[in-house]
Amino acid sequence: MAIVKLDDHLIDQIAAGEVVERPASVVKELVENAVDAGASRIEIATAGGGKTLLRVTDDGCGIPEDELALAVRRHCTSKLSGGLEKIATLGFRGEALPSVGSVARLSLRSRAEGNGEAFEILVDHGRCEGPRPTALSRGTVVEVRDLFQKVPARLKFLKSERAESSAITDIVRRLALAEPEIRFEISGPDRTATVFPAARDMGERIGQVVGEDFATNSVAIDAEREDIRLTGLAGLPTFSRGNSLQQFLFVNGRPVRDKMLVSALRGGYADVMAKDRHPVAVLFLTLDPALVDVNVHPAKADVRFRDPGLVRGLIVGALRQAFAQSGLRSSSEGAAGILARMRARADTVTPAPRRFDGFAPGGYFADGFAAPRQSPYDPGTSAFRPLQPAGTATIERPQDFSAAPPTPPAGTAMAGTAALSDADAAREAFVGPDVSSQLETYPLGAARAQLHGNYIVAETERGLVIVDQHAAHERLVYEALKEAIHGRALPSQMLLIPEIVDLSADDAERLCEHASDLARLGLGIERFGPAAVAVRETPAILGQIDIARLLRDLSDELAEFGTRDSVTSRIDHVAATVACHGSVRSGRILKLDEMNALLRGMERTPSASQCNHGRPTFIELGLDDIEKLFGRR
């Protein structure tokens, strides 16, 4: 076939496929233009999930009349004065408006600052009209109608209106997080609006977008390494989700969905979260624009770092350090779930009917207790006689606590203390000696009881704590094993016959560059020809392993991230298995001092708020919430 030159309209439609994937892509490009224009207020209106109508209105600087025609032509932009290495704006490629105009009907109205009138230009599937005068007080209005109507191959792959509207909202939420000083408003055909008012600071905007419960169930991140800074909030490991939609990552204020950053985020939670759960996080990376390439894809969602290993190490290290320094923190979701179930069950319980027949002889209460023949109050002793079931033996009159306490029998007095009263003795028999000082000194308070052979109930100054003894002890054993393992060079197992693993020349070279680091983990390797590696030692703790697969995983990880986490994670997995089987089992009855020793160990151990599998080790119920359940507040 002969080579021919494609016409400009077809070229625009092909290029639009990379920029305009769905209505949410259009909203992203238009809102980014509004942000770059210095807008303080951005409104987004949609109909038909964005397929029928998309309108973005801003109060930015606007576009002069003589530049409107250039704004809808490919590769025309005002944002690359500093070149590709000094990109300081969200948009820079000059492709958004012409790409949208090639697959839809586009209307662009704008009034530049200082101009007395506004102008409009129309683009109908590549055909341009204008500019011509129009009415507009300030800023810019971009209206997109009938997206993909003349490109049915793209239209049929769009999802339902609800799914497309949800994608638009997600895009706006991410941009709103990046720009807290801008007011965002999204409205649909039903005239309901989602509004993110201009916030005083990033903390307020995070509360608006992600939710106030996230702020109370997260730790602050602020770390810096070699002029790269990481800030934001990371959710507690027990405050997790079933998908990754609540992960917001930004590079120099640009929302991104980079797989390396997502992998680093997972690495920071590797030891404290179940594999089928996803963390909630809002993290901002700030670095010199020359150290990151944002011109990877027209959608500008991917980035490439000059030193990805440094960035990954910063994120993983900052997250782990923040969790270690945050102390014992339990997600409020666990307590909220318990309280909700209690309230729900209380609502379904039918109270027993109450009937009062007076104090006549032979009368009965509805609960079957005999009515006393006289007042239960005895004025002679200032005490109450307890009611008792009919037909039971008479209960002796209770001790008169208004009189002086009786002298205890010999041997009941504790050394250095006054004798225990009957009530104190009964209390000690149930919960042990008085440990009220522990309520103030220790975050997890004092152990009071064990329930069902697995749950420790402890009293704290703020309420009570319920501890899963097996999960808690499993974390303690696991952390002790990791410290013993990684605190020194790991013992290795010498292979009787070295195993030769064939790799590519690049992979072999990469592995041998890290041979000394791998040797500390018990993996001894050396070069064996141009494209092979000889393995002479393996970590003894791993036992029998697939050496070839391990090396290939390592080489892939070193190529992508420059780390050796594959070996470390496998060793940690063994340690976690040992910890699980060597921990206090469910059903074991613990003494009071054993329960308190477990609580003290949790308070000294990093990441003790969750077990190795990501489950919470304890749930805290506040005294205020408990009192509300009983109607005391």
Automatic annotation (TrEMBL):
Molecular-function GO terms, alphabetical: endonuclease activity
Domain DNA mismatch repair protein S5: start-end pairs: 206-324
Gene3D superfamilies linked to this entry: 3.30.230.10, Histidine kinase-like ATPase, C-terminal domain (3.30.565.10), MutL, C-terminal domain, dimerisation subdomain (3.30.1540.20), MutL, C-terminal domain, regulatory subdomain (3.30.1370.100)
Record's keyword terms, sorted: DNA damage, DNA repair, Endonuclease, Hydrolase, Nuclease
Classification via InterPro entries: DNA_mismatch_repair_CS (IPR014762), DNA_mismatch_repair_MutL (IPR020667), DNA_mismatch_S5_2-like (IPR013507), HATPase_C_sf (IPR036890), MutL/Mlh/PMS (IPR002099), MutL/Mlh/Pms-like (IPR038973), MutL_C (IPR014790), MutL_C_dimsub (IPR042120)
Range of residues in the leader sequence: none
SMART domains xrefs: DNA_mis_repair (SM01340), MutL_C (SM00853)
Domain of life assignment: Bacteria
Domain MutL C-terminal dimerisation, chain residue ranges per copy: 447-590
Role this protein plays: This protein is involved in the repair of mismatches in DNA. It is required for dam-dependent methyl-directed DNA mismatch repair. May act as a 'molecular matchmaker', a protein that promotes the formation of a stable complex between two or more DNA-binding proteins in an ATP-dependent manner without itself being part of a final effector complex.
PANTHER family (UniProt xref): DNA MISMATCH REPAIR PROTEIN MLH, PMS, MUTL, DNA MISMATCH REPAIR PROTEIN MLH1
NCBIfam families: mutl, PRK00095.2-4
Family of this protein: Belongs to the DNA mismatch repair MutL/HexB family.
Protein name: DNA mismatch repair protein MutL
Organism: Jiella pelagia
